[in-house]
Structure formats: C-alpha cells, structure tokens
Amino acid sequence: MDKYIDERFERVQRALTSLIDSITKYTPSTTQANDLATADRELSDGLHELQKHQNNYLRIQELKKETEDLDAQIKSTVTLLWGTRKEITSTPTTSYPSSSPRYDFTYSDLLNYARRISRFTMPPAGVTNGVDLSARPGGQQQQQQAEQTPVTARSDTPNPVANGTPIPSTSQPQPHPDDTSQPPPPQDYPTALPPHVSGWVNNSLGPASFYPWPNEEHIRSGALDTCQRLAAAGVGPQGYDP
C-alpha cells in the first residue's frame, strides 16, 4: 500500500513540475494541466483505498484479539474439564456386598409371568367391595339355619284350667329327631365369581379401568387439600376447629 501511494504522489509531483516549467518559460500547455488534474484524481482514489486498508487492518486486529480471548476461554474450559475428569476418576467407588441371593431372571420375565397368571389370580379384598366370596347362597344358608334351630320339647307343665274346664294346648308335640341317625348335609361353596369381579380376571368381558394414582377430584376432597386452603387463607391447620 505504501508503494501504491508513493507512485501517486510522484505522478502528481511530475505533472506539477512540468506545468510550473511551462509557465516559467511562458509556454503554458493545457495538456500538462490535464495531466496534473488526472494525477490529483488518482491520488484521491489512492487515499480512499488507504483509508479502507486502515479500517480493514483495525478490524483484523479486533478479530485477532477476539480470537485470542476465545482461545483462552477454550483452554480454561478444557483445563476445567480435565481437572473434573481427574477428580471423578480418582474418586473411589463404593462396592456394596450383596446380602440377598441373585437370580438369573429379569423384570421382563417377572412381568410376563404375572401376565400369564393374572387371569387365575383372585383380586384383593378391596376390589370385591366387601363381598365374601366364600359365603354360601341364600337358600343353603337359610336351610342350614333351619337345621341348626333347636326343636322345642313338650312341656311337662299341666294345662291351665279355667272355670273347671281344661284348655287344650295349642302346641303340638314334635318328635325329637335323632341327630346321630342323619348325616350332616353336604356343604356347597360357590364356584363362580360375582359379576363385578369377573371383569378383573376375564379379559373377554372388556378392559377394566385401572388408575395407578387418585384423580384430581379425590385429591381435592382429601385432608391435604383442606390444609393447603387453610394455609393459603392464613389459618393454622393445627388446632383448627371449623
């Protein structure tokens, strides 16, 4: 760039010297004046190029400084990562002895096994809504209660007499059954599940609804939500009496 500007200055100097000599010798020429004007325009263009060059140089210096800062940041980050890795690798691992026996099966095997036996498994007591599945049918239960009802024996008290006329007894003597002569009736137990329980073990009746957690309505009707509302209102839940 310095050589480029020096050439422009030398051309202006030559054109100016030639014009001055022609004026001194009283032989002025328009050609020499035009050469000086052309050299001056070229010098102006060269100065504009020099300005662009200086601006680009300053921009390059800024980029170099930014690059150096980024390099330093990268180096510090890599150094921090290396130190962290060194600390992690130098930390001793804790080995817990196995206190329980280990089995050669995975949770997938357990889930598959549970899926196979689910149709043959009875639901918990909470699912049956309090229905005793081992209870006998109503007819058999009434028959058993009738059989277990003791028979009233004939009273030895004489019949009361009203106005000298004996009053006939309203109770008829019942023969006392011989308990040892008849075998006890067979006990029959139900072999079918109630309709509201069959859906849990029989997939053909339709998929049963299963909720692993309570819904929002049940949560809002609980004690925790009540305590939350009292705390939001500024009332202490402890000792609160509505």
TrEMBL record:
Role summary: Component of the Mediator complex, a coactivator involved in the regulated transcription of nearly all RNA polymerase II-dependent genes. Mediator functions as a bridge to convey information from gene-specific regulatory proteins to the basal RNA polymerase II transcription machinery. Mediator is recruited to promoters by direct interactions with regulatory proteins and serves as a scaffold for the assembly of a functional preinitiation complex with RNA polymerase II and the general transcription factors.
**Where do the segments described as Disordered lie?**
122-214
List this protein's GO terms for biological process.
Answer: regulation of transcription by RNA polymerase II
Sorted keywords for this record are: Activator, Nucleus, Transcription, Transcription regulation
Identify the domain of life: Eukaryota
Q: Membrane-spanning residues where?
A: none
Q: Which organism does this sequence originate in?
A: Coniochaeta hoffmannii
Listed GO MF terms: transcription coregulator activity
Q: What is this protein called?
A: Mediator of RNA polymerase II transcription subunit 4
Family membership: Belongs to the Mediator complex subunit 4 family.
Metal-binding found in the keyword field = no
- Gene Ontology terms, cellular component aspect? mediator complex
List the InterPro entries hit by this protein, alphabetically: Mediator_Med4
Query: What ranges does the record list as Polar residues composition bias?
Result: 146-171
Report quaternary structure and partners: Component of the Mediator complex.
Location, primary (coarse class): nucleus
Q: Which Pfam families match?
A: Med4
